[in-house]
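Case study 2.
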Amino acid sequence: METNQQENREITKETRQTTEPEVFTNNMYTPAFLRSQIGKLVRVEFLIGTNNIPDRIGILEDVGISYILLRSIESGNILYCDIYSIKFVAISEYFKVPDKDFQI
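Prediction:
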């Protein structure tokens, strides 16, 4: 009896460690949806203050619960972005990586 309880505790502990939070698995949540778009070219618009809407363009590298990582196509730098200030995300299905002489 005690052995079964110990095995059940170990299984439960393993399950907790290996399962991801629902925000990463259910596409009704922004992080889960954005995770399905990793590797694509995106244009992300942020609401800063009441009327300032800057945007950033890059390759979506990673998504966390409260952040996204964008890799700049110009410099290759990683940009850490607050997921809660995102208003719009434009996702490009097809894109060509620009030449090194590319300028915006």
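The beta strands are 41-46, 55-63, 67-71, 78-82, 86-92.
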